[in-house]
Write a structure and sequence with these properties.
By secondary structure, this protein is an all-beta fold. The protein is built from no helices and eleven strands. The chain has strands spanning about 5, 10-15, 20-25, 35-40, 45-50, 60, 70-75, 80-85, 90-100, 115, 120-125. The N and C termini lie far apart (about 40 Å).
Length: about 130
């Protein structure tokens, strides 16, 4: 059983940058794709970004393209989300997730992810 722990969420101002990190324990995730999702109050959970198992393929939500970047470090079993140019509408709880099956490419579908972290709060003030 893999455990995912997110960190880095905090209160920032619009235009600021923030880096979220997700560390895995219990099992190496070097062969699994990873993703970041977010859920704002009253809204459904949505994909922010995902990376394939080798980090070469990526998928981004249209709302974050050009501002956010996902990086996967297989040696450390971590996945980071660099967030630049933050906007108030980026306010949400951000979740890290690991693919259900190994050796997958980047995917945007929640059903493809089997392990989830507890989430970290990101709040962007205007």
């Amino acid at each position: 059983q893999v455990q995912l722990v997110e960190s880095g969420g905090e209160l920032v101002h619009a235009g600021d940058s923030l880096r979220l990190s997700c560390a895995a324990s219990g099992r190496s995730l070097s062969t699994f794709g990873m993703g970041w999702f977010r859920q704002a109050p009253g809204k459904e959970r949505e994909l922010v970004a995902s990376a394939g198992w080798d980090g070469r393929s990526t998928v981004y939500a249209d709302s974050v393209k050009g501002r956010f970047a996902i990086t996967k470090d297989n040696a450390k079993s971590t996945v980071d989300l660099q967030m630049n140019g933050l906007k108030p509408e980026d306010t949400a709880v951000y979740y890290c997730a690991a693919n259900r099956f190994p050796y997958g490419v980047a995917t945007r579908w929640p059903r493809d992810f089997a392990s989830w972290g507890q989430g970290t709060q990101v709040t962007v003030s205007s």
